[in-house]
Structures are given as C-alpha cells and as structure tokens.
Design a protein that fits this description.
Length: about 350
C-alpha cells in the first residue's frame, strides 16, 4: 500500500473499480480532473467504493484542501478513459467550489500544487503541459468527449506546470489563487431576457475559448462584474456565456430574422473539438451532413452492434455531434452521440466511447 504522506486519510476504492498494477508502465504523468460537483474529498473517495462503478482516482481533493488517497499508487485508477494514460499517471479528482464557473478554491489549488510537487519528486519527473497527450501533465478531455477538468482548471494547466517546476527547482512561488468576479456592477440585462449574441465564452471569466458566431437564447443567470456575466440558455441547456457587447453588436433581435442553419457542413467549424476515438451506438442513429436536426439526412445510419471511428465533435442544439470523413464520398458526416445536461456535459450518451 503506497500513497503520499500529504494524504490525511486512505479510503480505498472497490476492487472492482481499478486495475491491480500498471501493466509494466512507470509513473511519469499527472492528470487532474474536476469532480463537477461540490463534494468533500471523503465523499468523492467513498463514491468509488460502490462496486461496479468502474471509476476511481488515486487521490481526491476537497475545497478545504483535504487530500484523501483512494487507489494505491502502484495500481492504475480508472479515471481518464484511456488505458495508457491511466497506467502512467497519478490521477487526482478536485472539488469545484462553484458549479456554474467550475472554479476550485484557493485551498484546493494549494493542495493540488503540493501533491504534484510530492509526486514529481518521488518519481523523478517534471510537469510539461503540451496541450495534448504527449506531455506529462494531461487532461481527461484529451481522451474522450468531455469538458473535464472544466474550463477553469483547463486554463490553469500551464500555470500549474510552472508553479510545480519552480518548486522543484527550489524557488518560492506564491500559488495562483482562483479568481472571483469583481465587485457588482450594473449589467444591462436580467434573468429570463430573450437575447441574440455574436459572442459565446465557455465560462464567465473569459479564461477559456471565446467563439464568434450567431446564437439566440434566454439569459439563465447573471454573475455581476464578470467579463461575460450572462449565461445563455437554450431549451433549458446552458450553451455559454456572453456580455453586453456581444448582445448589443449582434444584428438580430430575439424572435426576428436569424442566420440560417447550414444543412451541409463539410468544413471544420470553430467549435470543433478534435478527438480520435471509436463510438459504439446502442440505438439507431441517423447520419447527417451537418450537426443539426435540419442537416440533410444521408439515408444511412448506425445502430447497435455497429461502430464508427470519428475525428472530433461539436456540442450544438443540446447534443454532442461526432464527425468523420466518409470513405465513400470524402464528405464530412455528422451524427448525434448523446444529450447534454444543463452544464454542457454528455450525461446521456447514445452508446459507448472507446
């Protein structure tokens, strides 16, 4: 049994939820995840004691900075949807202190930095964030259709590597504190207001991707003083965050004329997330020429017992749409692969991602 001295408790995962050993691989990576909830470290660890859940982590960190060990370091936790990454990585689940902005607390951040320093020292490697699976600091989103570790932690990956490596070099570095929205200011729009906007940010802080296009919806939440204070909801699903400028400079009006939805999309759009994986549907799904219900139906489909290799996905109209290039026509194809929840997560997939 081995785990960091920084862990205050050991709450072992069910033997059904991890792999014994690491398949001959050495620990040379760290993969931070977010819990996507406000659990304590203990609650998270206990959730992995449920037999048959087929999920676990080496460590769980709560918003109070508590670190709980869950899977011994000599064993592979089932955390990242990728055999090779989990065999080489110490995986860490971190609590969110806000489930709208997906931030983590200063205490959780400090605990994460301290744990990463400890792991790197003991296994003799440094953190290198490359933005893909080749680095020693990886993310769940690199291996499957998920937003984990959330937009906030995703934006902090380069900073995490910088702080940890500085500590390894013997430098004293004040850990970066998760920022909070500034003091309340006078936002023009309020909750339940129908709007059109040409700008969508993945979070209210603007620390992640910001897209330009044309969207309509209803303001579902207002965070005073944030860079993008308005959460835009469509059909009960949050699709992003916007601000006064995005709303005021959009030429459309709610309920008025809107940009037509393309029925054929062969190019890669700005919101395309590259991912090379295989999807096994468990229901019959139509193949379309665009990621929309209005996309031209090709007349073909995938159903239970079949599989498709795809190269990326988008999140539109409340669904995850996977995409690939047709071998017979050379055209891009699109297919719904799951339903997004109000937080934008694919919690109701139409099959299995591998």
């Amino acid at each position: 049994m081995s785990y960091s001295r920084l862990a205050s408790k050991y709450i072992p995962a069910s033997a059904d939820n991890y792999m014994r050993g690491r398949g001959g691989y050495k620990v040379c990576k760290i993969t931070p995840h977010h819990m996507a909830c406000q659990w304590s470290a203990e609650t998270c660890a206990r959730s992995f004691q449920v037999a048959g859940r087929e999920a676990s982590a080496n460590y769980c960190i709560g918003s109070d900075g508590t670190i709980v060990a869950n899977v011994d370091e000599e064993n592979r936790a089932w955390t990242s949807s990728n055999y090779y990454n989990d065999c080489q990585s110490i995986t860490i689940e971190i609590a969110n202190d806000n489930t709208d902005t997906w931030t983590i607390s200063p205490k959780a951040w400090n605990a994460l930095v301290n744990l990463c320093v400890d792991v790197c020292k003991r296994y003799g490697f440094r953190l290198n964030y490359t933005g893909n699976a080749n680095g020693s600091l990886t993310e769940h989103r690199m291996f499957t259709a998920t937003a984990c570790p959330g937009p906030y932690l995703h934006s902090k990956m380069p900073q995490l590597a910088q702080e940890v490596n500085a500590r390894l070099d013997g430098q004293t570095v004040a850990p970066t504190q998760p920022s909070s929205p500034s003091t309340p200011s006078g936002e023009k729009y309020s909750v339940s207001t129908p709007i059109c906007t040409n700008t969508l940010s993945v979070n209210c802080y603007g620390t992640g991707k910001v897209y330009k296009g044309d969207w309509n919806g209803t303001i579902g939440r207002v965070i005073k003083g944030a860079k993008y204070p308005y959460r835009v909801d469509r059909n009960g699903v949050a699709i992003g965050w916007t601000n006064d400028t995005g709303i005021d400079t959009d030429p459309h009006i709610p309920g008025g004329s809107a940009q037509s939805t393309p029925t054929v999309l062969n190019s890669i759009p700005s919101d395309f997330n590259r991912e090379s994986a295989t999807f096994y549907p468990n229901i019959t799904l139509k193949i379309r020429k665009a990621p929309t219900e209005k996309g031209i139906d090709t007349g073909f489909y995938y159903s239970n017992g079949m599989s498709v290799q795809y190269d990326g996905y988008v999140k539109r109209e409340g669904f995850v749409w996977i995409s690939w290039i047709s071998a017979s026509t050379g055209e891009r194809r699109w297919m719904k692969a799951g339903v997004l929840n109000s937080k934008g997560y694919n919690t109701n997939p139409y099959g299995r991602f591998v």
